[in-house]
Every structure is written in structure tokens, then in C-alpha cells.
Amino acid sequence: MYKILKTRLLKKVMTRSLKPGQTSALESAGLELKKEIRRKFGRSLHIREVDTGSCGACESEIIAANNPIYDIQRFGINFVASPRHADALMVTGPLSKNMEIALKKTYEAMPEPKFVITVGDCALDGGLFKGSYYIDKKINEVVPVVLHIPGCPPSPSTIIQALLDFMKK
Ligand code: SF4
Asked: What CATH number corresponds to the domain at position 67?
């Protein structure tokens, strides 16, 4: 116990705050995104996230997008627990064989109109895991993907900017 406490107390902080310029860029992109979402949906955008076999870092960035620094919810984006409440499906990781049916079923459970966003290089073509014995399909071969957000992993700001660019189309 003493060893754990000592490590905790001596370890440096692993996160850092946004710089002032980054904050204003995030703020203006987020507010623009909020306006676009309101114009297109008349309300907030609800997203269901599914991890089909990632290393966990893409999820960490999505979780960070919901933390008090980025606070994506204030820009009209809510992550929901059920696909039945979702407008969009956000998928991370390569498509492992075990997750293929789950991904399909999640997509089928969503009400129309619906769309799919993939996040991270693995979600495009397997990324780091390409060629693995456990992957034989890409996500866009199972569900129709309309937006891919590249990165390994993409930062919360990249995710917000990509959503804004997509919403403007
Ligand atoms: S894209 Fe990178 S961070 Fe995301 S799941 Fe793949 S290896 Fe992990």
C-alpha cells in the first residue's frame, strides 16, 4: 500500500490543459458545430459508440471529448447507451470477427435516418492490426460508413472539427 501511495504522489500529472489559442479554436468550431446540428436535426445529435476491437486509445480520446476541458455535450452531442436512441453510430477499432454480428445488430436497432462514423486508422482498414487472423472484413463492408475520422488516435479537437466539416456538407 505504501509503495502504491508513494508512486501516486511522486508521479507527474499525465494530462495537460489546452493553450489559450487552442481553447478559442475549439470553442468556435464547437459553437459552429452546434449551430449546424441544430439546423439539420432541430435538436442535439445522439451518438452510440461501439468498439469492435480497438486498443482502447480511440475510446480514451472519445471519453476525453466528454471531459470538462472539451465538454462536447455543450456543442449538442450526446453519447447514448442504447442504439434505439441514436442518430449516428461511431465505431472504433478494427472489425474483429467476434464483433461483426454485434455491429450489424446495433446498426439494425437504430431508427431511421441513421449514419455511421468510423474513428481511428484501425476502423478504416484494420490499421495496426491489418493482416491479423482475427480480422477478415472492414467495417464499411458490414455497415455503410459516411464519415471516417483518421488518426491513431484522433484527438477530441480533430473529432469535433471532422464532425463540423461533415455537418457543413
Ligand atoms: S487507430 Fe490507433 S489508437 Fe485507435 S484503436 Fe487503432 S491502434 Fe488504437
From this structure: 3.40.50.12280
Residue of the CA atom closest to atom 2 of ligand 1: 152
93 CA distance to ligand 1 centroid (A)? Answer: 6
Residue 4 covered by a domain? no
Strand positions, DSSP E, the chain: 45-51, 77-79, 88-92, 115-119, 145-149
Q: Domain range spanning residue 40?
A: 22-168
pLDDT at 138 over 90: yes
- Quickly state the pLDDT bin for 152 (edges 50, 70, 90): very high
Answer yes or no: is the C-beta of 118 below 6 A from any ligand 1 atom: no
126 touches ligand 1 (CB under 6 Å): no
Whether 5 maps to a domain, the answer reads: no
- Rounded CA Rg of the chain: 17
